[in-house]
């Protein structure tokens, strides 16, 4: 019986340790999709949380998977300092825009082109948290800006304001006409008497 109790305790302890190990993993947070205009610059935001304090061995890897699903391309690497890619489509077009102390490992891609359509991945390791999620950002480069929510809001507010001015003007005109008609009736009634 003692052997079974010991085995049961070891299994329970192992399950708890595994749960703690998974909870200690680095969590990476990104926007799921970003739309940008051709020829502009775009910040690809990536933040992380870790159960361990930020270590000197923290590393960040940004990679790119084109829409045509050809091979992955390195975009950016960080280990104690930022390292730009020595070659490839992002050479001279990517800069570090993160702040490690604020758990921000974002980058900026310059002069976006339609060939930049695809998925960017952001992976963070913070020793001893070396496992965790990989953040993904799907970038869509468009030729011109779509009618955004801000434009819609501006049109809605402008339309509501114009409609309100029209209603107030109509009410004022109706009141003035009623007053004139009433004054005319009183004038006619006074002349008849």
Description:
This protein is α+β, with helices and mostly antiparallel strands and 193 residues long. It has 2 domains: 23-142, Immunoglobulins (Immunoglobulin-like, Sandwich), CATH 2.60.40.10; 145-192. Helix content is 34%, strand content 28%. It contains 2 helices and 11 strands, in the order H-E-E-E-E-E-E-E-E-E-E-E-H. The chain has helices spanning 2-23, 149-192, and strands spanning 27-30, 33-37, 42-44, 46-49, 59-66, 73-79, 82-83, 94-96, 107-109, 118-125, 135-142. The strands form 3 sheets. A 6-stranded mixed beta sheet has the order 2-11-10-5-6-7, with no helix packed on it. Strand 5 (59-66) and strand 6 form a beta hairpin. It is elongated, with a radius of gyration of 32 Å. The N and C termini lie far apart (120 Å). Mean pLDDT is 84; it is low at 7-23.
Which regions have little confidence, pLDDT < 50, spanning 5+ residues?
7-23
Relative helix content: 25-40%
Number of strands: 11
Strands side by side in the biggest sheet: 2-11-10-5-6-7
Distance between the termini: 120 Å
Average pLDDT rating:
84
Relevant CATH superfamily of the largest domain: Immunoglobulins
Structural class: alpha+beta
The CATH topology of the largest domain comes to Immunoglobulin-like
What does the radius of gyration come to? Answer: 32 Å
CATH class group of the largest domain: Mainly Beta
The major pleated sheet works out as: 6 strands, mixed
Shape: elongated
| CATH architect. name of the largest domain | Sandwich
Order of helices and strands: HEEEEEEEEEEEH
Q: Figure out the total of helices.
A: 2
Beta percentage is 25-35%
Keywords: Disulfide bond, Glycoprotein, Immunoglobulin domain, Membrane, Signal, Transmembrane, Transmembrane helix
Domain Ig-like: 24-140
Protein name: MPZL2 protein
Family: Belongs to the myelin P0 protein family.
